Task: inverse folding
């Protein structure tokens, strides 16, 4: 039953990627990928909440009865999100001003809930923590990639405002790929999110096919 | 699935315990973070006021030296932040909502000196189209700074419009509705000042 750590990492980052394979968490994926920086920030916040929630559910897994597990999971995710929201607002205010908008959105993401139900509810504490973390990082990777494509085509920049999110040391990330008056507006607007996310799913499948792997059927039940 | 069927009260107790536990945790977090969060909100307010009221014209704290003006017709009350120098008012700042934006109302922060001249204007929040209407945001272009130093008589009221409507302010290529709303909002914000100037000066 218990999965190898290497497989957990591979599943989370690529093979069973939350966005590109399972197609979960589409709400924040559409809303927060206007720029690569936004996608990256949303992904990191989600990864933190997923790791903490997976850890807690794995700890309590023997005390929660099957019948009330869903409300308890939602409670745990919501409590974690509120906790992160308050603490960031109080002590990491600069970061909060950029990310604050995204944090409450994590509750509406069904990817954390899916991992709690499919993984953390059955597995030991350490694998669950890793699964939450790497599923979250895979989510971060997908959102950053979608954001980067939308940003480059939509407004010609890459990682705009990265210094606001990560600190002045990361100003070098902010690049202008296309001339200043470049911009295909539809990519920045909501339809662009659907278009690019869809193309990314296709791209992932083509890469998997080309490398001769069997396509993993999309589904929350991995392992 | 579970082999035995447990009575309902077992599930209820488990769920209740979790709710109580996390409730206590969140209440404790709230108590600890309440004061820092209020401090941060105050700092943010002061930082945004500093953009529309230059530091050199006041020696008080406009955030704490604020008065609330109730508005007729059930509109939301306006909070006016007052800049004072040696006890005399030198400037006022207040939020004003410009209606008619492409994506809904646009919230402005106006800074006005005692004679009715604009010290500065900033867009606080808006839902305009990225890449088109969002050029009103000081983070994107410096369009909004052109209003600094203007007043109701300068330019004359009939010129307080975008060029397309016969006024003197540039619209953006591809976006007229947004700048039209902002120009109209600033003009009407200045008229609000003229109408409420005496109330703003009252001690409270």
Result:
């Amino acid at each position: 039953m218990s999965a190898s750590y290497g497989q957990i990492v591979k599943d989370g980052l690529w093979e069973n990627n939350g966005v590109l394979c399972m197609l979960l968490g589409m709400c924040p994926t559409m809303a927060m990928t206007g720029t690569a920086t936004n996608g990256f920030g949303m992904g990191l916040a989600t990864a933190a909440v997923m790791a903490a929630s997976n850890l807690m559910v794995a700890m309590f897994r023997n005390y929660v009865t099957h019948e009330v597990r869903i409300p308890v999971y939602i409670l745990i995710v919501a409590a974690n999100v509120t906790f992160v929201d308050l603490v960031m607002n109080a002590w990491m205010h600069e970061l909060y001003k950029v990310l604050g908008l995204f944090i409450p959105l994590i509750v509406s993401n069904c990817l954390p809930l899916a991992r709690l139900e499919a993984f953390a509810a059955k597995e030991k504490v350490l694998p669950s923590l890793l699964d939450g973390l790497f599923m979250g990082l895979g989510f971060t990777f997908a959102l950053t990639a979608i954001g980067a494509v939308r940003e480059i085509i939509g407004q010609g920049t890459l990682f705009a405002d990265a210094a606001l999110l990560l600190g002045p040391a990361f100003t070098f990330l902010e690049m202008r790929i296309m001339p200043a008056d470049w911009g295909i507006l539809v990519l920045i607007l909501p339809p662009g999110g659907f278009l690019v996310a869809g193309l990314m799913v296709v791209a992932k499948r083509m890469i998997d096919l080309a490398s001769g792997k069997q396509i993993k059927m999309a589904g929350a039940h991995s392992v | 699935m579970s082999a035995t069927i447990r009575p309902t009260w077992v599930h209820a107790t488990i769920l209740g315990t979790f709710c109580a536990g996390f409730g206590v945790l969140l209440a404790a977090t709230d108590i600890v973070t309440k004061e820092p969060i209020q401090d941060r909100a105050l700092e943010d307010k002061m930082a945004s006021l500093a953009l529309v009221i230059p530091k050199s014209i006041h020696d008080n704290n406009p955030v704490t030296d604020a008065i609330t003006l109730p508005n007729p017709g059930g509109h939301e009350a306006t909070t006016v932040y007052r800049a004072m120098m040696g006890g005399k008012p030198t400037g006022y700042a207040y939020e004003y909502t410009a209606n008619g934006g492409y994506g809904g109302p646009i919230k402005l922060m106006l800074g006005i000196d005692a004679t009715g001249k604009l010290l500065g204007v900033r867009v606080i929040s808006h839902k305009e189209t990225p890449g088109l209407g969002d050029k009103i945001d000081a983070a994107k272009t410096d369009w909004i700074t052109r209003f600094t130093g203007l007043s109701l008589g300068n330019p004359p009221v009939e010129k307080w419009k975008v060029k397309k409507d016969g006024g003197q302010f540039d619209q953006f290529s591809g976006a007229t509705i947004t700048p039209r709303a902002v120009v109209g909002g600033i003009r009407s914000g200045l008229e609000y000042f003229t109408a409420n100037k005496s109330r703003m000066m009252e001690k409270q």
In short: Chain A has one domain: 5-207. The mean pLDDT of chain A is 87. Chain A touches chain B at residues 34, 60, 63-68, 71-72, 75-76, 79, 82-83, 86-87, 89-91, 93, 97, 154-155, 183, 185, 188-189 (CB under 8 Å).
